[in-house]
């Protein structure tokens, strides 16, 4: 797992909460900083991909590990 | 990049149908859309300070029933007193266990994200509703005001 500046554990939350929480957390971060999001909602894989494409915040990494999904998002 | 716009008309006042407008509006706002929801007729229930939304299995053959109740309950049984309250309690319990947000929470997230919530003035008058029953921070307007925004929108949904 690469380096990150903040971590958001959205485990147990369902659509659209992981995205909304991530958006809120990114709002308090500086450009270039990296947010690590942990989620258990399988739908979040496509959702974070779409979130990244539409908001310009780069999805640096997206992977599953032990039933949890991990996303590394760099704030634009 | 120009800000995209989403316009939604919310017409339904049940617990299940409260979700689509608030989920889509809050998500759109997170994606950078300027978003408005126009609440008309039964949709106005979604703007009440104290939400008393219920879900009904009546006239809804697509609703998954707990414990196979649809197998041993005739349709008329679903009209029994207390059935709707029980269904609502079970639905809320299920949503909580699956990590689905409450309607209150999604509505707050919409307001935090500057989603504009507009109550249909005509319906408010029609049903003799009191503005004091509604949450703060909403606007009251009519069809022409809706079109002013919807006419410029990229996506327009009727729910």
TrEMBL record, chain A:
Pfam families named in the record: TusA
Secretion signal span: none
Annotated Gene3D superfamilies: TusA-like domain
Domain (UPF0033): residue spans on this chain: 8-32
Alphabetical list of InterPro entries matching this protein: TusA-like (IPR001455), TusA-like_sf (IPR036868)
Superkingdom as given in the UniProt entry: Bacteria
Annotated family: Belongs to the sulfur carrier protein TusA family.
Listed name of the protein: SirA family protein
Organism expressing this protein natively: Thiohalocapsa halophila
Origin organism lineage: Bacteria, Pseudomonadati, Pseudomonadota, Gammaproteobacteria, Chromatiales
Automatic annotation (TrEMBL), chain B:
Protein name: Peroxiredoxin family protein
Keyword Lyase included in the entry's annotation: no
UniProt keyword terms in alphabetical order: Membrane, Transmembrane, Transmembrane helix
Listed transmembrane segments: 21-44, 72-91
NCBIfam families: SulfCarrDsrE2
InterPro entries per the UniProt record, alphabetical: DsrE2-like (IPR032836), DsrEFH-like (IPR027396)
Keyword Transmembrane helix found: yes
Superkingdom in the source lineage: Bacteria
């Amino acid at each position: 797992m690469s380096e990150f500046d903040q971590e958001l554990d959205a485990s147990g939350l369902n659509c659209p909460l992981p995205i909304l929480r991530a958006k809120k957390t990114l709002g308090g971060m500086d450009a270039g900083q990296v947010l690590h999001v942990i989620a258990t909602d399988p739908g979040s894989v496509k959702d974070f991909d779409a979130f990244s494409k539409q908001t310009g915040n780069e999805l640096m990494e997206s992977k599953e590990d032990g039933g949890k999904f991990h996303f590394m998002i760099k704030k634009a | 990049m120009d800000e995209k716009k989403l316009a939604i008309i919310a017409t339904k006042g049940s617990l299940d149908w409260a979700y689509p407008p608030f989920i889509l509006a809050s998500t759109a706002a997170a994606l950078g859309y300027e978003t408005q929801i126009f609440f008309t007729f039964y949709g106005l229930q979604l703007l009440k300070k104290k939400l008393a939304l219920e879900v009904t299995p009546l006239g809804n053959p697509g609703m998954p029933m707990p414990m196979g109740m649809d197998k041993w309950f005739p349709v008329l049984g679903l009209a029994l007193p207390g059935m709707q309250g029980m269904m609502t309690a079970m639905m809320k319990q299920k949503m909580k266990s699956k990590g689905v947000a409450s309607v209150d929470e999604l509505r707050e997230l919409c307001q935090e994200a500057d989603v504009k919530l507009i109550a249909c003035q005509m319906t408010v008058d029609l049903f003799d509703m009191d503005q004091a029953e509604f949450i703060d921070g909403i606007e009251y307007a009519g069809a022409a005001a809706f079109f002013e925004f919807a006419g410029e929108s990229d996506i327009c949904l009727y729910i």
